[in-house]
Specification:
The protein is mainly α. It has one domain (about 25-105). About 55% of the residues lie in helices and about 0% in strands. It has 5 helices and no strands. The chain is globular and about 55 Å long. It starts with a helix and ends with a helix. It binds heme C.
Length: about 110
């Protein structure tokens, strides 16, 4: 009984580690460049870059990232469900995690 419980706890721990490693902020950045930049200004730092195509009409990704009410769970829910006028981006689970990891890195 006891060893069974131990193995269960260990497996749960490994699962957590797996998820953390799967989220890749760099991959999230290229996803954001490709899929979010059309509408969201990505950062204050790249304002001179021709790649910046975002508009003032939507919150910048940096301001979303810094909003304490927009934590990882909130972002995941936002990104998995369609939110007109924002298009359904059809991100996979791991792409969603990457984008969230990128936003969290931006918030620091
Ligand atoms: C076609 C334009 C468009 C694209 C592409 C887009 N968004 Fe949005 N997004 C919007 C609009 C417009 C809103 C505001 C919606 C509203 O307020 O109801 C929004 C809102 C959001 C919000 C909620 C902000 C808040 O504080 O309420 C998040 C988070 C978000 N977008 C993340 C993303 C991410 C991440 C991507 C790329 C994977 C992305 N968006 C791509 C247009 C877009």
């Amino acid at each position: 009984m006891k060893t069974g419980l131990c193995a269960g706890v260990l497996m749960a721990l490994f699962a957590v580690v797996d998820v953390t490693q799967a989220a890749d902020a760099e991959a999230g950045r290229s996803i954001a460049d490709r899929w979010c930049a059309a509408c969201h200004v990505i950062s204050d730092g790249n304002a001179d870059s021709p790649a910046v195509r975002g508009t003032d009409a939507v919150p910048t990704l940096a301001s979303i990232a810094r909003d304490p009410n927009r934590g990882p769970n909130w972002l995941r829910q936002w990104l998995v469900a369609p939110h007109p006028p924002m298009p359904d981006l059809n991100l996979s689970r791991s792409e969603t995690d990457d984008v969230i990891a990128y936003l969290q890195r931006m918030a620091r």
